[in-house]
Amino acid sequence: MDERRGETPGVMREGIEPFAVKRASETPTTMDHIMEEICEPENLKQALKRVRSNKGSPGPDGITVTKLPKYLRKHWLKIRANLIQGTYVPQPIKRVSIPKEGGGERLLGIPSVLDRFIQQAILQVMRVLSAKVLKISEKTE
């Protein structure tokens, strides 16, 4: 068998790279560390504050932003474990149609308040991490 032969024949010729993406090695501890940061109490408090200030309609589960803190107190340990283990599954999106100004309708997808809370917590940590990456890349240029 020809050792130069890849998954797509002929792509290893000079000047042509295969389309396969080489995945950077990620250790589970790196991902665990990021998820631990996301689940830090201070980050979660800020995320909850932001979600509550944005208000918004409840998703398909019917939980409102005012009911979210009580829901989290009851279910947080299981939700956190699922997040850390990578087994958390977002809830289905509630579909709502709203009238357009010029006629017709526009479909909106409304996620659950819990999913908005988790998304906000992730966003806050990812903003900090991306700022650090940008700062590092600026120093190396």
Describe this entry's structure for a reader.
The protein is mainly alpha-helical and 141 residues long. The chain has one domain. It contains 4 helices and 2 strands; from the N terminus they run αααββα. The protein has helices spanning 28-38, 41-54, 68-85, 113-140; strands at residues 94-99, 105-110. It has a two-stranded antiparallel sheet. A hairpin with a 5-residue loop joins strand 1 and strand 2. Helix 1 (28-38) packs across helix 4 (113-140) and helix 2 (41-54) crosses helix 4 (113-140). The longest helix has 28 residues, at 113-140. The protein is globular, with a radius of gyration of 22 Å. The termini are far apart.
Keywords for this entry:
mainly alpha, 50% helix, 9% strand, globular
Task: Give a short synopsis of this structure.
The protein is mainly alpha-helical and 141 residues long. It contains four helices and two strands, in the order αααββα.
